[in-house]
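Slide 14.
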Amino acid sequence: MSDEPTRRPAAPAAPRKRELEQAPQLVRKAAGVLMVGALFPWLSSISTGGELPWGHWFGAIVLTLLAGGILMESAKHRAGLKANGLVKSIDESHPMASLIAALACFLAAIVVCFMGESVWTGGNAYGEMTRFIEAGTDPGAIPDSARDTFRFRAVMEMGTLFLAVATLAHVLAYEYGGKFNPIFPLMFIGPAVAGVLQALGAFSLMGRQPLVPLGIIGSLIVAAGGFMAMYTMFVSMKEAKVQGEIKAAAMREERKRQRAARREKSQG
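Slide 15: predicted structure.
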């Protein structure tokens, strides 16, 4: 029997974490702020006058967060970090499997949004909504003139939340060797504009509807996250300009060195 000690398999190398530049750091902060704002019913709470189908709204929120969780765990697994076992198995089955699973959860959230509705049957001289009816209670009680005020706004809310969580997953992947896609901060323009417009329109309804303050708070937070990401684009362009100037200066110095070397060679 050999006296040589049993060799243990080498431990896997620790994942290499890069130092984030200013732009990705700002994008991550903006995505975090946007996520907080998107967890408010910042559109539907005002459009429905507070008569939300809360079960459908919460169900859609859970499914959207699940989609974001799949993207985050997939990014961890690809980076060599400890990840959820189920997502790890999905990720290893096919390169696109986790993305497909996340999109499936998000589409399920959209379906849940369209399953719920809050409609109104008229308004007074001030344009206030006077009567809301939950769908499914009594179809005969809902007149043809009734207008749905929940579905599309809830879809926009879920889209904003999904953008936030997908951006967080993207920055995590970039932190561990992935490529940074500038399209993510560009997509924050929509929430920035929508948040400002929604907040401005909601202030005129203060005191008339119960959930207006909730909608205003969410709208302002969403707008803040959007503008933070837009500022990131400015920072990115500024950094690109500085890097371009450094590269151009280095090329000029290299050409000077080459000309000086040729002169010395010709004189020698």
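Speaker note: Residues 212-267 form the longest helix (56 residues).
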